[in-house]
Design goal:
This protein is α+β, with helices and mostly antiparallel strands. The protein is built from ten helices and 26 strands. The strands form seven sheets. It has a five-stranded mixed beta sheet with strand order 7-6-15-10-11. Strands 8, 9, 12, 13 and 14 form a five-stranded antiparallel beta sheet that branches. The chain has a five-stranded antiparallel beta sheet with strand order 21-20-24-25-26, with no helix packed on it. It binds the ligand Nc1nc2c(c(=O)[nH]1)N[C@H]1C(S)=C(S)[C@@H](COP(=O)(O)O)O[C@H]1N2 and molybdenum atom. Molybdenum atom binds next to loops. Molybdenum atom (MO) binds next to loops.
Length: about 450
Amino acid sequence: MNPMDRARRELETLPAAAGNGLLHRRALLRHGAALAGAVLGYSVTPLAFAQQLTEDSWSRGPGTVVPEAGLRSRFERDVVRTLSNPKGEPRTQHARTPHHLVNGTFTPNSMHFVISHAGDPDIDPDQHRLLIHGLVKQPLVFSLDALARYPMVSRMAFVECGGNSAPLFSPQPIQATAQALHGLVSCSEWTGVLLSTLLDEAGIDPRAKWIVAEGGDAPHLSRSVPLSKALDDAMIALYQNGERVMPSNGYPMRLLLPGWEGNMNIKWLRRIQLTESPGMTFYESRTYSQVLPNGKAYQFYFLQEVKSFITHPSPGLAMKGPGFYEISGIAYSGNGRIAKVMVSADGGKTWTQAALQEPVHSKAFTRFRAPWRWDGGPAVLQSRAWDEAGFSQPTRAQLVAARGQTDGVPPVTAFPSQHYNAIASWSVAPNGEVKHVYA
Ligand SMILES: Nc1nc2c(c(=O)[nH]1)N[C@H]1C(S)=C(S)[C@@H](COP(=O)(O)O)O[C@H]1N2
Ligand SMILES: [Mo]
């Protein structure tokens, strides 16, 4: 039997781990080559192979000049963020990460999502200062040069807007890409000075229970953060994936609160005041408080809870015929590490455990993968993540019962839009089309 046929035979006989063709996660390791062989299923004659190696124009002469700062291939120009306010009108600007067009576990800096309530300030790093004052023994002011002399740390961390995935509060599934639905979360390696190091130096007055952090952009976005978080893993981030923090992400410095709601991660950070109680600032008492169906305010919901979604396949990426596919996506939790991700291909009737890409970092993206033998019939793909604290994603029905959805519950000014972390579903049709569904 030739190797291709053997590979195909092997794939066909692999036992299913769950309904609708999901295979055991270890099949990727044990049968990877067989799977690939069976998917691609083409072989080349020696003559065609030789032509392939010599004929292309780019192989015949010198290439172009290497740029000082690298740019993506010109063939990848469609891999861009989508902008909600491309003319920069005086309102919030959103830029969404194209999760269906990137891969791996951290987000390239040019693709990191952005929310800027009044555009990106053009800050001169030599003039920028960070002030720490309030309930401290000794108020301190730091230039960028001064901060650079403190001990630094690097860590992976996701940042997620509390409003990410808000379209899923709509009563009918909105047809859009993973970028449009879930694009307000990204993950980077951040490097900077732990806030605890600076607070130690300033000397914390025992009355201090909160910090109020303020940005240097025109709205001076300010949020109150419990002192315990400030002393735990909060960081003054100076570098993002090895280069200076991007202008849109807070250049020259931002507050990083690993695992906590995006808007508390104050960008263009210029001031930290230690206080006895929260500041009840404009953004935290208005924009980031909302009324629940039971009439109570949903406020100070710091943590981004455990969540996952499938990026490949996903809407906009059509499937090309039955056979082997790898289902892959990202999972993360503000509580710590991802413990487990389960994947279903039959709308949640049966599940199998996905493989997690090592290393699994705390409060960072973890990519999961599950091998799938698609028989060409209708399927509904879902992922459900568990974190090391034991929490898991609710179903959409459970989440909506607690928080409401956008059409119903009065008052109409209080539509839910924050902290959607329920299981998301993609349907696959026999023609290969992938759609967003509620299952
Ligand atoms: N100073 C300031 N900080 C800010 C914002 C802002 O507009 N101004 N936007 C906030 C919001 S709503 C979110 S979700 C995160 C987004 O971080 P990113 O733009 O780096 O992805 O930054 C937060 N920090
Ligand atoms: Mo946000």
